[in-house]
Amino acid sequence: MKSSNEQKYQEREKRLLDAIALREPDRVPVVPLFAFFNCYYSGISPREAYVNPEKALEAWRRTIYDFEPDATYSVNFTIYAMDEVLSGLDFLAMKWPGHGVPDNQSFQFVESEYMREEEYEELFHNPSEFYLRKLLPRLAGNLRGLAKLPPLVTATLGYVWPAVLPAFADPEVQLALETLLNISKKQAQWVKIYGAFAQELVASGFPSIKEQTVLAPYDLVADNLRGTTGAATDLLTQPDKLKRAVDQLAPFMSTLGINGAKAKKNPRVFIPLHKGTDNFMSVRHFKEFYWPSLQKLIVDLVEGGCNPYLLIEGLYNKRLDIIKDVPPGTCIYHFEGTDIFEAKKKLGDTVCIMGNFPNSLLATGTVEQVKEHTKKLIDVCGDGGGYIMSASALIDEARPENVAAWMETSKEYGRYR
């Protein structure tokens, strides 16, 4: 006979897989993406979570065991790295509690044009060299010395190689190399601690909604290289180079997603969508620059045995007919602000719908309002299966009594049989 926890794991995993496959599970799965709510609920600050790994994991542990979701949400997606790692890098692409934002608030990404508009050709010519000697020094202050490294091709020149060794005597180069050595060890420690906790959750009967994360190819450029403004400008001033960059980076995302899912033994690959919203891009540009590479990524992942899990941020009310063209019964579309009832109508026979419970209602509503809206979502989106209950976005601020009412109502009212 299976142990109680193993049985719970199998029941929860089956509930998820049935919903993804557009079947009716025993009930609607409920998967809240608990983020810094875990800290507030457990009585610690986000700052403490970044400084003390054990406090962070205990906050996640208490929240998960108290509310018993059908799947958990990775702690390492809320806390990418501990304070000592980010501080040791002098990481410039993020503000985190105690470093740019108050101790009791969430992190914030710092977007910038980390790749200049005239540097596309350098990216195309040698991506590895560009990331090492251009991008990393701009992302982390203590890695600025990498910009002074001689070209990597020098190492292939044999007798010329000793002539470039003095470059490694530069104090900034030495700082960069020492930083990479020391910080990589610290990050490895955090990964080991988190990995053990992830296994603990599995052993306790909780699947994870995702482990591996990749980006839509366009977002890889617009988020991490050119920034929102830079990418939007490139759409008009150098569209061919932008499209070439997206197409060149796309296969890397597919490979990363498939290999990561296999290594982590979780088929659900998370893809947060950022820059393709109704407000950021015209339908014409979406069809030309954003969707083709994203659609290819989705198909590649499905063919690799994965279930793409798209967190569709912003509004996609004008794109529902476009994003319907994916393999049926394989994907999760988690909507933030999109009209989810219209999404269910147009996409319900193709993808599993997820989310859209207002975070604001969890934070400021009454218990009765929470119960009422939960039932409304289940009545419409849960009809016939293919729905996962979740909030619109990551949950930070929320009233515990509202979260409890939401979870309980979802589990009781959302039964199919």
Automatic annotation (TrEMBL):
The lineage of its organism: Bacteria, Pseudomonadati, Thermodesulfobacteriota, Desulfomonilia, Desulfomonilales. This is Uroporphyrinogen-III decarboxylase. GO terms for biological process: porphyrin-containing compound biosynthetic process. Residues 216-413 form the Uroporphyrinogen decarboxylase (URO-D) domain. GO terms for molecular function: uroporphyrinogen decarboxylase activity. InterPro entries: Methanogen_methyltrans, UROD/MetE-like_sf, Uroporphyrinogen_deCOase. Pfam families: URO-D.
